[in-house]
Sialidase domain-containing protein
Amino acid sequence: MTSGHGGTYPRANFLREGSIIGAYTAFSNGNNVLTLVRSTDKGGSWSEIGTAATAPSNANDLDNPYPLQLPSGRVLLAYRDHSKNATTGAYLYYRITVSYSDDNGATWSYLSTPASDPQAAADQDSLMRASTDGGKTWSSATTISGQGITARDGMLGVAVVNGHRLIAVFESEQGGLFTVNNVTSADDGKTWGNRHRVYAPTGTNNNAGAPAGGPNVGGTLCVSFMTDGDTQQHAWITGADDKMLTSGDGGATWGNRLRVFAPQSNWPSLLALDASSLPYMADFGSCEVQKVVLS
């Protein structure tokens, strides 16, 4: 996706005209640059089309972009937009920002800041805000996961199981170790529950996190994540590789573990391509894509 020029945290979605728009974080001249790319051959090749935001890396944590086209044709990009002390690197302020493009990703403008909440290292919940005006304004927050327990939930991804049923996959840190979990909603996200373990690595002192899930590929749910369970290096995130799991029962059980990228690979994501295949994207020295075919 990045033509060998580095970059991290790749994410992608389809545009209405059939091409794929991708986003990742590039690093240039001491800046984080949220970069947009496009593929017209189902993810086989990519060309850069624009940048959405740029900020000095020492004073800003500009990262984690996610593109989505609205029914109106406008494309939104949501991303983390945290402020840091330029000298010490300590975080000063946390926010999520949304920018918009009305020309399929070529030029971008600021739209809104749906979240600017303080975070706690030991007890972090997954929250949801809704917008009924294309992302200009947002509702108050409701909790998706983490309420009533002490855990650091985060890196949430949501997919449609069927009808009004949704599934949200996320990482959770308890006792110093990360696992992959999910919750479900039967009413289009109004309420959530049924917290469930998706994956915990074997061995001791190993982690699994940064899931992206879980596109519905012909009735099969898929989730990507990274884990150091194979390398046993015990220096998370060092030694992580990128894997995938599938579920044929709506997320109740998961199996068919597949390694897609070898160590060191980070921050993977998925996109349903058709009824049997998907591009699997990851930071593998640069933002790279593998095609996975389900059998």
About this structure: The CA atoms of residues 7 and 26 lie 4 Å apart. The longest strand covers residues 152-162.
